[in-house]
């Protein structure tokens, strides 16, 4: 049976972002059902039973996360929506925000009800000017219809939502950096524990969920956990937005059940390789922080557990593809520059390590590499990994380790030939 | 002493102070208001907003310098920001940047002498499906090549 689009069902309609379009196809009926038929605790259970795992990168079960909120604490609870989509290769949340903001908003309201929160924040990356305006318009529409504000749909539940713009910092996609930023500070990640569920925004219990995760909550509100859990694969349930960019014919966001083969995404959904005479060299399945798969290892299923078994991760599903024209050292140098620029500077291994990677990779790519440089890359990566406050350390250590491991010969050739064999250094700007 | 911002901006910042559960959260939106009025965030405005929120000017400076979108100096009327991160680089961001540098006669990080255009190299803007791409002020322009870049430059006054 063909897969029915769920998260992308509205995006090709006329005026897809308007509340009229959204409500014409049953929008906000899921919320009405939740408010009428579920206690907050029962809806937390429903989301647990759906198996929904977070779509931001870590894949943590959403309902379980909600369950970490302390009971009987006399403090406000906050829901912070992570719309700081910044992982290179990832542009799925943007699609939802621009084309179907009410699908996200309905999930936010149902989730806030479930966790007994009356104040939610939508933290959106500053560079998303257009999507931010679209979302703010959607919030006003929802307020006018009584889906936000006091006594929503006569349920007695109140919710206010503030849209908050980031200002250009990759690190603010890390949940505790996001909280710092939302408090008006530099986005320096916090040491965990305490986890935000206990001590989060303004020191209060806080849940941070990704945009796509919350859009999935809308689906569960509409059609229930049992139906939802039937999509995808065991422990990897539900529909998923997969981004694919780089050397494919049709880059884009593709919706499919979790567990779709990577090669099917590349060759069918994205139309195959961009140049017919340049085959696949490697793919990164989950955003730039995730480990690379050389072509021979690309026969994998795109879900949390299958990719973990293959030695990489689904991450934010921001996949990108490289063909045989790519110099892998040059590609890694590009990423090293990104991470060096975006390191918040708080932890020495990350701040200094990213600089080391840029230096070593620059000399390798320019043909000035020394024997031992390749081992030095791996050595520095091992000193960064696991030694930082937040997962940024892994986000650069994993690419370095995996690019070197999978393409060691190519790194060696840069040293032995004292030049980039593919001439990428000359072509780079 | 006169205000370093227009009275209207001052009123908007006052409104922000009560919008959030804590005053501190008003800082980023207040800085956006200041930059919206002045095009950048001068030091006098940092001191002013620090006083409003109840933090030190050094704290505000720390925030301004942490986030790439806050500017401490004026820039050109059109800010062309070219994404250089890997998904864009794979599809020719380097060539797009070189073409812009040649056409504008400036290097990345510089402004044309007439103050019309500032050219910047930036990291991933989350639009990799349209790579290579750039953002000009608040608008995204994707699928760039020499021809589309030339057409865009024609339109920038």
Concise account of the structure shown:
The complex is a heterodimer of chains A (429) and B (157). With 429 residues, chain A is an alpha/beta fold.
Global mean pLDDT of chain A = 96
Q: Of all protein chain pairs, which has the greatest interface, and how many residues does each chain bring to it?
A: A-B, 54 and 45 residues
Strand order of the largest sheet of chain A: 8-7-13-10-11
- What structural class is derived from the secondary structure elements of chain B? alpha+beta
Describe the oligomeric state of these chains in a short phrase.
Answer: heterodimer
Instruction: State the helix count of chain B.
Output: 7
Amino- and carboxy-terminal Cα gap of chain A: 48 Å
Shape summary of chain A: globular
Largest sheet properties of chain B: 4 strands, mixed
What overall form of chain B do the CA principal axes indicate?
elongated
For the secondary structure, the number of strands of chain A is 13
Helix fraction bin of chain A: 40-55%
- N-to-C SSE string of chain B, H for helix and E for strand: HHHHEHHEEEH
Low-confidence stretches of chain A: none
- Note the total helix count of chain A: 18
Note poorly predicted spans of chain B: none
Widest sheet: strand ordering of chain B:
2-1-3-4
- The proportion of strand residues of chain A reads 5-15%
Radius of gyration of chain B: 18 Å
Which whole number gives the mean pLDDT of chain B? 97
Radius of gyration of chain A: 22 Å
């Amino acid at each position: 049976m063909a897969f029915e689009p769920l998260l992308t069902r509205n995006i090709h309609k006329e005026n897809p972002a308007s509340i009229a379009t959204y409500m014409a196809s049953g929008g906000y009926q899921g919320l009405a059902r939740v408010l009428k038929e579920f206690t907050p605790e029962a809806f937390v259970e429903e989301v647990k039973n759906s198996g929904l795992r977070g779509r931001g990168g870590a894949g943590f079960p959403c309902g379980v996360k909600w369950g970490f909120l302390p009971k009987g604490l006399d403090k406000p609870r906050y829901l912070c929506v992570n719309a700081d989509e910044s992982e290179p290769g990832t542009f799925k949340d943007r699609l939802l925000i621009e084309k179907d903001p009410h699908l996200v908003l309905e999930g936010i309201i149902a989730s806030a009800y479930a966790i007994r929160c009356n104040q939610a924040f939508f933290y959106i990356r500053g560079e998303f000017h257009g999507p931010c305006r679209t979302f703010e318009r959607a919030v006003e529409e929802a307020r006018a219809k009584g889906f936000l504000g006091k006594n929503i749909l006569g349920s007695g539940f109140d919710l206010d939502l503030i849209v908050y713009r980031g200002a250009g910092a990759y690190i603010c996609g890390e949940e505790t950096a996001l909280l710092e930023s939302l408090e008006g500070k530099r986005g320096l990640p916090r040491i965990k524990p305490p986890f935000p569920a206990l001590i989060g925004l303004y020191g209060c219990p806080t849940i941070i969920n990704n945009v796509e995760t919350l859009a999935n909550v809308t689906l569960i509100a509409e059609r229930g956990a049992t139906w939802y859990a039937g999509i995808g694969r065991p422990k990897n349930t539900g529909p998923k937005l997969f981004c694919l960019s780089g050397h494919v014919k049709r880059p884009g966001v593709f919706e499919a059940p979790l567990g779709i083969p990577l090669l099917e995404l590349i060759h069918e959904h994205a139309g195959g390789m961009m140049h017919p005479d340049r085959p696949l060299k490697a793919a990164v399945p989950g955003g730039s922080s995730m480990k690379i798969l050389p072509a021979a290892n690309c026969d994998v299923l795109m879900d949390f557990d299958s990719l973990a078994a293959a030695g990489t991760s689904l991450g934010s599903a921001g996949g990108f593809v490289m063909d045989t024209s790519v110099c892998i050292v040059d590609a890694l140098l590009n990423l090293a520059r990104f991470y060096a620029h975006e390191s918040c500077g708080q932890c020495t291994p990350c701040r200094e390590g990213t600089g080391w990677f840029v230096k070593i990779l620059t000399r390798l790519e320019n043909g000035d590499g020394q024997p031992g440089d390749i081992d030095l890359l791996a050595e520095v990566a091992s000193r960064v990994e696991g030694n930082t406050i937040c997962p940024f350390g892994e986000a650069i250590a994993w690419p370095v380790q995996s690019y070197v491991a999978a393409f060691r010969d190519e790194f060696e050739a840069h040293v032995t030939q004292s030049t980039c064999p593919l001439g990428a250094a000359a072509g780079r700007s | 002493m006169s205000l370093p911002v227009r009275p209207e901006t001052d009123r908007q910042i006052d409104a922000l102070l009560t919008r959030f559960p804590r005053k501190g959260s008003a800082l980023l939106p207040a800085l956006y208001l200041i930059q919206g009025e002045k095009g950048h965030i001068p030091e006098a405005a940092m001191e002013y907003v620090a006083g409003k929120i109840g933090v030190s000017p050094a704290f505000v400076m720390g925030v301004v310098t942490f986030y790439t979108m806050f500017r401490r100096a004026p820039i050109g009327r059109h800010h062309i920001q070219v994404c250089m991160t890997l998904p864009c680089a794979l599809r020719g961001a380097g060539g797009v940047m070189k073409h812009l540098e040649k056409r504008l006669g400036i290097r990345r990080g510089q402004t044309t002498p007439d103050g019309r255009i500032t050219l910047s190299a930036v990291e991933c803007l989350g639009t990799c499906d349209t790579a290579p791409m750039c953002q000009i002020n608040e608008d995204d322009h994707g699928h760039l090549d020499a021809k589309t870049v030339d057409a865009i430059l024609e339109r920038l006054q």
